[in-house]
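Schema walk-through. Below, the input block comes first and the output block second. Nothing else is stored per chain. Lengths vary across the set, and this one has 679 residues.
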Amino acid sequence: MTVYDPDGGIVASSSINNNSYFDFTALPRYGTYTMVLSASVAGKADLQLKAADTGTLVIDGPAKLVNLSAAQNGYYTFAGEAGQYLGLGYTDLAMNPGGSMSYKVFKPDGSQLFSNTWNNNSSDNLPMLPASGTYTLVVDPPAISTASVKIWLSKDTPGQFESGQAMALSSSRVGQNFRPTFSGTAGERYWLSFNGSTLSTAFVNVVKPDGALLTSFSIGTAAASFEIPALPTTGAYAIFIDPSSTLIGKVDVQLGQVAPDVTGPIAIDGSALPLSLGIRQRAMLTFNGTAGQRIGLGYTNVTTNPARQSITYTVLKPDGSQLFSSSGNDSNSSNPPTLPVSGTYTIKVQSPFASSNLSLLLSSEVTGTLVPDAAPLNVNIARVGQNARLTFDAVAGQHYWLKLRGGTFPISGAPTVYIYKPDGSEMNSTSVSTSQDLDTGVLSASGTYAIWFDAPSTATGKVDVELVTIPGDFVSAIEVDGAALPISLNARQRAMLNFNGAAGQRLGLGYTNVITNPVSQSISYTVLKPDGSQLFSASGNSSNGNSLPALPASGTYSIKVQSAAFASANMSLLLSSDVTGTLVQNADPLNVNIARAGQGARLTFNGVAGQAYTLRFTGGTFPSFVSITVLNPSGNTVNSTSVLSSATLNLSALTTAGVYTVLIGPSGTTTGQVNVQLQ
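--- output ---
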């Protein structure tokens, strides 16, 4: 199809098919126009010529209701002014059949200013109008759809910021934006805060005087605060706030100017430096540091307005890169990493949401050298944020006890005490308020070890530190059923006692004449299997005895004895076989003599299924009750009692045949004898 104007010139041409539509451009003149259809095959077509819907859009006026029939477009004009910013809103959009609605805005000279398509309710921001005059909005539904929509045309809400004052912005028009401005000077820094927003999403652009973007971010209903970068030029800046899609609502915006940086030196180990900072104002404090130096930062008398707002503390290296950063809303302290190079470092202090007051301390570590078995070294951490680092030289295989006494730290401010190996890896740790002990273990490497005291928060105090040598292990053989082995151990010294055991062997351990200094300190007793794994462990602070599990394998076993606390200990150790014997029904009583502390007895008899038995115990000489337990062939308890001088234990008809065991187990260091008869 070709369209000719009254002079015969071609206005437009296009191919058509079933259910096609064709949009004419604006007709160039009045007169008779001709449409010529050229078909390659026979057929027919129903043609309908429709004039575009026209009308006027009023900026900030009521919404324009548009109703378009199938294949009809809408042309709507509005009077615009050069430099004006407008927003278009589309609501109540309906199309049949559905699709995407096209919107185009043409300048007064007929060239296109803007275009977009939507298939739902939404909004657009027009570019700044380049000239004053009549602009045209063309609304073009898809294909042959009918369409209806309400169109809103709105100026951006203006405003002029005064630094430090809040501005209430609100709109009930879809597509309307906010564009308040402020005058700024090159190099100045500002911040924006948003409160009371009812907009779930809005985009904020800070626009430079030349119209270019300076920075951008988004806000929601939560309170938010942002810093604007230092202004690059002097002039009028705009804060363009664009509610997303069809959102309408309000937001309170405050513009504040950031005060100039507080600058100056801060001395390591000097007096506390008081700081008073406005919102987002920075303190940029410099100090001279040396490669390998360790420092601590302390923050005291911290207050913010509003209360308990976060303050960030950042340490910058001489090249300006970040070494360390921390934040908090109260008095506290931090441990920056070891300084990597020599030069001028900077501490940046800033609160993004509040004004703040505080005092800042920069401290070197308290240092000292520990000499084993010398007089205690007093460590005095007198400054908030200060730590202490003591060193000692050692040879692999040495064993020490770190003795901490006379501490004045509060319980809530107890420093953590770390021990580091010569390679810098952590070896052990504890904490100390008033007194504490720490076993270094047997040292695995030769070199210089470090003990680091990390005082938490604002804690200060002092403590006496002593490094005590722990003698090497007391190593000896101990014989099964041999004489008691006397042992004398210094604090944390170990005894490693070896014996040969056979698979299935039953033994008892007895500990007599136990004394510790300080008194009543716990001693641990551990039996290690030939492969070094644990067979048994017990602990106590007085004379006692224990029955060991049946030895699982033949070989050399070890008994490790050590005071669990930092105490010296003396004792005698006995290792004894169980007293054994076989009971025969109705035979003479069997005398069982338990003569060694920790020793037990294990008697057996052959039981017949269905038969009942009675065990009689007479002539007992035990000073305290001794437990009696009868086990069936599976090792489960059949019955039990206790005996002092005499007792009777009835066994009802046995459920299974086999070898039954009678265990006689004295408690503690009890010894004695008793006659046992099976009836």
